[in-house]
Amino acid sequence: MTAPTAATRIGDLTRPVRGRLWAGTALAFIASAAGLLPYAAIAEIAALLLDGNGSQAWAWAFIGAAGVAVRLGLGVTAALITHYADADLQRHLRLRLARHAASVPLGWFGGRGSGELKKAVDDDVEDMHHLVAHASLDIAGALGLPLAAIAYLAAVDWRMTLVTLALLPIATYTIQRAHRTLPDRMAELTAAQLRINNAVIEYVDGIQVVKAYGRRGRRYRRFAEAVDDFGDTLARWTAEAGRAMFASLAILSPAAVLLVVAGTGTGMIAAGWLAPVDLLPFLLVGVGLPAPYMTLLQSTQLLRKAQNAAAHVGQVLAVPPLPAPAAARTPQAFDLAFEDVSFAYDDDAPVLRGVSARCPAGSTTALVGPSGSGKTTLVRLIPRFFDPDAGTVRIGGTDVRDLDPATLLRSVAIVFQDVTLIRDTIRENLRLGDPDASDADVEAAARAAHLHEAILALPDGYDTVVEAHGGALSGGQRQRLTIARALLQDAPIVLLDEATAHIDPENEAAVRASLARLTEGRTVIVIAHRLHTITEADQILVLDSGRVAESGTHERLLAADGAYARAWRSQHGTETDR
Ligand SMILES: Nc1ncnc2c1ncn2[C@@H]1O[C@H](COP(=O)(O)OP(=O)(O)OP(=O)(O)O)[C@@H](O)[C@H]1O
Question: Beta strand pairing status for 424-425 and 465-466?
Answer without folding.
Answer: antiparallel
